[in-house]
Specification:
- With 430 residues, the chain is mostly helical.
- It has 22 helices and no strands.
- The radius of gyration is 23 Å and the shape is globular.
């Protein structure tokens, strides 16, 4: 956030030359015979250039606020309590695949970071030793990153591609389904080879949750159906109405909230509603995620206005870097810098490259390949994604342990998925 605000402060204080070069025609119409002054330059930057980036950022921020609120309403009413029951097993490989399956499905339909917080809060009291929590916590990160990458609403990276009009939900899913599932299966198989013969479950039962379990199982299933089903309908809402996706998400949240009040109508007139359990960790992590994205969007917007990305694309064109190599470089950068900033910068750079139209156009092969590369790169190191950093904070996982035990498995899964993508490209299926 500090970097984003500082970049715009520097740009608005010293942006007269840049505006005259990069926006000469539009700035000339804005002046309409007026003299060139610093006040006119600042007004033009704030009301024309800066406003465009804020609108783009607001579309995604409002979508994230709506989807994370949906997760909190569902979690607050015990709609995910069935996971506690189904995941309670002493068979390590069964827990591995069940945990990965539920995390993958939830992350593909809900927010990636919210899914990580939810699943970590489930397995932490379930497992007895820290070593088991480290392994299965890493499994949550891998499954959540893969699940978030497979749909346009599952992660900030894919959501950015959808918001920019570079992918459509159905084609994006069909292109990435096989590579992502294959990569995840390889990673889970390798992790499962080193699991112990038996899991030591915690003997402590979950505490009684009080008022927030007054809902019956059918009521909780109804809320889960409204929330998850509504999120599935958002791409269709956008395709039918051509309105921004966040309006569909707000509509789903409003409908879920009405169902919530109907189901909890007995508590609305009493003081019991104040005592309801609130998932504070979920709220705090999601707020960090939103503010982090706002700061990155502001920073890359200011940098893009200086023409740096344009000059970088010219240098890449001169080097004649092919699309698969560009995606591979995106993987390395995502592991070192983070998947979200790498994809934000890649969209600005790659869109200006001299690549074939069938590669960079809407639903071109480059965009899902780039999304796969950044999601896998974000899983190679703990610092490669926001979810990985969150795992370090919640479970005390060390960077060295993850690098030693998990990174080689991610590399193997990435290699399998990347080979499948190349084969699909050769067959015309990607």
């Amino acid at each position: 956030m500090f970097a984003g605000v500082s970049c715009w402060l520097v740009f608005i204080a010293n942006g007269a030359d840049i505006v005259c070069v990069e926006h000469a025609g539009e700035f000339g119409q804005y002046l309409l015979g007026q003299s060139l002054t610093s006040v006119n330059v600042k007004d033009f930057i704030s009301s024309h250039i800066f406003f465009r980036y804020i609108v783009k950022c607001a579309n995604i921020v409002l979508f994230l606020l709506a989807t994370t609120s949906i997760v909190e309403v569902l979690n607050n009413n015990g709609c995910f309590d069935f996971l506690h029951e189904w995941l309670r097993t002493r068979r390590p490989r069964k827990l591995l695949w069940m945990l990965a399956f539920f995390t993958f499905i939830i992350s593909a339909n809900l927010d990636n970071l919210a899914t990580v917080v939810l699943m970590l809060s489930i397995i932490h009291p379930l497992l007895q030793t820290d070593s088991q929590r480290r392994v299965y916590g890493a499994v949550v990160i891998l499954a959540a990153n893969c699940g978030g990458a497979i749909t346009v609403i599952g992660d900030l990276t894919s959501l950015k591609l959808w918001d920019a009009g570079l992918v459509t939900p159905s084609i994006y899913f069909l292109k990435l389904a096989i590579p992502v599932l294959a990569a995840l299966a390889v990673m889970l198989w390798l992790v499962g080879k080193n699991l112990p013969a038996r899991i030591e479950l915690s003997l402590d039962r979950l505490p009684y949750r009080g008022d927030d379990t007054l809902l019956s199982r059918p009521q909780r299933l109804l809320m889960l159906f409204v929330g998850m089903g509504g999120l599935w309908f958002i791409p269709s809402f956008h395709r039918i109405t051509h309105l921004p996706p966040f309006l569909g998400a707000l509509c789903v949240l409003a409908l879920l909230w009405m169902v919530n009040e109907l189901c909890n109508r007995q508590l609305l007139g009493s003081d019991k509603m104040v005592l309801r359990r609130l998932p504070m960790a979920l709220q705090y992590a999601n707020l960090q995620n939103v503010l982090y994205f706002v700061g990155l969007t502001l920073m890359f917007g200011a940098v893009a206005e200086t023409g740096v990305f344009h000059h970088l694309s010219i240098q890449i064109n001169n080097m004649q870097i092919m699309a698969p190599l560009a995606a591979f470089l995106g993987t390395i950068m995502s592991a070192l810098v983070g998947n979200v900033p790498v994809l934000l910068g890649s969209v600005d750079v790659v869109s200006q490259l001299n690549l074939p139209q069938d590669v960079v156009t809407t639903d071109g092969s480059l965009w899902p390949a780039l999304s796969f590369a950044t999601s896998m790169g974000g899983s190679m190191l703990l610092t490669g994604s926001i979810a990985g950093v969150l795992l370090m904070r919640m479970e005390g996982l060390s960077f060295r342990w993850y690098l030693r035990h998990i990174t080689p498995k991610v590399v193997a899964g990435y290699a399998v998925g990347y080979i499948i993508i190349i084969v699909m490209m050769l067959c015309g299926l990607f």
